[in-house]
Amino acid sequence: QSARTGKHDFSTDAEVHVFVNGKTANGLTYGAVVEIQFDVNEGTYRAARRSLTSKTAADIDESYVFLASPTLGQVRFGDEDGPFGGLMNSGFVTNFGSGGVYGDWQDFVIRPNRTTTSPGDVGDNSKIIYLSPQVFGFDFGGSFAFNEASGEDTGCISSFSGPYCDRAYAAQGVTGFGRATENLPGRRNEIQAMARWRGNVGPVGLAVSGGTMQAQAVRDITVQGTVVQTLRDPQVYQVGAQATAYGFTVGGTFMWGNTNFFYIPTVRGDPEMEQWFGGASYTAGPFTIGGNVFAGQYAGTAGRAFNVSTGAFPGNTSRQGQRRYAYAVGANYRLAPGLDIVAEYVRHVIHERGVDLDGQATNGVNDKLRANVFLVGTRLAF
């Protein structure tokens, strides 16, 4: 099937966040957070005349409980970002528009030219998290997850063990898809750790952070049941810093390690990932304007193949690697408490020489994908 699509659309993004808080007589605070989002499916799928799945169906984005002490720190348990995956990062300036290169522009792009490698893309897999109190400006955090799955139950389809099971440590075909989306087997025994310092030097507010994510990769398996480790155990590192003064905020981060884009585990012999981010913004009263950019080098998509019959693992010697970069400018204006008008332009490019990136076999090799998105809208949070 094929279609031609227009360049203009309206889009509605709705979420409901539920917060429960309490406090004990001895000063401990406790509670829970549940975030419900209405975009469980990327698109509407009609299987029959009266049977379809809706792209506005509800699902749980994050869901966790917490227990906190002013002197001992906070413990969280459930589906939540980790310290490396969004809770303790520095240098990511996204306080304008809808977030710039890590904003809502991805909702308007159809083909695979939209997947970024942001902190939040690590995923909200079920984990236990510890966040320390701040002492002399320093704090740290750590988390552990058995796998990439979230929610309850086993994840197995139709009660049969398979590659979508939460606890799968070997899955046939994992070399090919690695980790196409969140909640597919890719990482096991995941550890995140971050350290951060926040303080002031004269009129300038500073934040500096650094940390890592370490995990084990799911292995491939032949039809005879032989388990083979084809993917490298993910090891990713990140450092970042930002400064704020007189309404200006400037920040940057650098991330590197042996994962692919979107934190997909790489195949043995693949080049490592390197990605940097920079951004700046200015706020004056109700008005904020800013811009940000990222660029990265990744192993890409044309890797190796695993023979499920023989266990052979031939490589593709013509690999060139993949480059991705994006830049954005945007602004928002606060009309009333919780009500903003936002505007933003984003350009995102993927290039992997000699590799057909659009997935269409009938239109030749398109090894460079470009997305240009301009959006204007409102945001209401209450």
Mean pLDDT: 89
What is the H/E string?
A: EEEEEEHEEHEEEEEEEEEEE
**In which order are the strands of the major sheet placed?**
1-2-5-6-7-8-9-10-13-14-15-16-17-18-19
The CATH class: Mainly Beta
CATH H-level superfamily title: Porin
Protein structure class: mainly beta
Give the count of structural domains.
Answer: 1
CATH topological fold name: Porin
Report how far the terminal alpha carbons are from each other: 42 Å
Tally the helices.
2
List the quaternary state of the chains: single chain
Low-confidence stretches: none
**Shape from CA axes?**
globular
How much β-strand is present in the residues?
Answer: over 45%
The CATH architecture can be named as Beta Barrel
Radius of gyration: 22 Å
Q: Could you estimate the helical fraction of the residues in percent?
A: under 10%
**Which sheet architecture does the biggest sheet show?**
15 strands, antiparallel
What's the number of extended β-strand segments?
19
